[in-house]
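Notes from the 1:1 (GR / supervisor)

We went over the backlog. Supervisor wanted to see one worked example end to end before approving the batch request, so GR pasted a single chain during the call. The sequence is below; no edits were made to it. Supervisor asked that the structure be written out right there so they could see what the output format looks like.
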Amino acid sequence: MSGSVNRQTAMLMIAAAACTGCRPVLNYPSALGPRYVGVAPARPASAPGPHALRVVTYNVQFGRHIDRAINVLSTRAPLPGADIIVLQEMDAEGTRRIAEALGMSWIYYPAVVHPKAARQDFGNAVLSRWPIVADEKLMLPHIAGQRHAQRIATAATVLVDTIKVRVYSAHLGTPSDIRPSKRRDQADMIIADAAAYPFVIVAGDMNNHGIGKEFVAGGYQWPTEHNRFTTTVFNWDHIFLKGFSVATPGRAKVTGVVRDTLGTSDHDPVWAVAQLAIDPLHH
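Structure output shown during the call:
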C-alpha cells in the first residue's frame, strides 16, 4: 500500500511542477525535418550467423551534460560497444558529439524548440554501428495540453549484414500532457508504422510502464518489463523487440539499468540484448 501511495504522491508532484511556468514550445510541424545526419566509417563485413545486438536507450535531459553522457556511454559496463543507441531530449550538436565520440552513424530529428532547453531543439536520435540506410520523422498523435508540444519518434532502418532492422527512438507524452488513452494512441502509431518490418526495435522514454502491454499485444517482446526504476521512482524507459529470438532463461543477463551516471540526467540508461539470427539467403 505504501508503495502505491508514494507513487501517487510522486505523480501529483510531477504534475504540479509541470504546471509551473508552462510556456508553450515551438513545434516543427513538418514530417520532413529539420533533419540531421552523420555517417561513421564503414565497419568490416561479418560472416553470416547470429548477432547479439546490444541496444541502449538514454534520455539525456535536455542534452545539458554531453561530456558526462559520453563518459557514461563509453565507460559504464555494459554500455561500451553498444550496437544501437537511442537518445531523447537531444539537439543536433549534442547528438553529433556523442555519435562521433563513439564512432557511430546517426540520425536526429527535433520535435520542438523547448523553453526549458534554453530555447534549443528538443528531439530524438538513433545511433548505430551498422549502416543507416533510411530514416523518417514519425509524427505522433495528440498535441500536449500544457506546452502544446508535438511528440515524435525518430525512425531508422539499420542494415545488419543483409537484414533490415527498423529502429524507433520514442518519447511519448507525459502524464501531465495527455491521458493514458492518448499515450496508447501514440504507441499504436509506432506499432502501425512498423508493421511492414519483420525485425523491429522500439526504445525510449515511454513516460509510463503499463504502455508495454500495448506493445506486447502488438506482437513485441518486452525484455525491460521487470527492470527496477529508471527515474526517481518509475520504470519508464523501455525497449521492445519484434522478430528477435526469445532469450533463454538461465543464460547471461539480457537487460539492465546503469546507475552510475555522474548526474547526467534524471533518467538512467537502459540496455537490452536482441538476438538476431542472420540467414545468408535473406536479402
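Supervisor's comment: The chain has one domain: 2-277.
Batch request approved.
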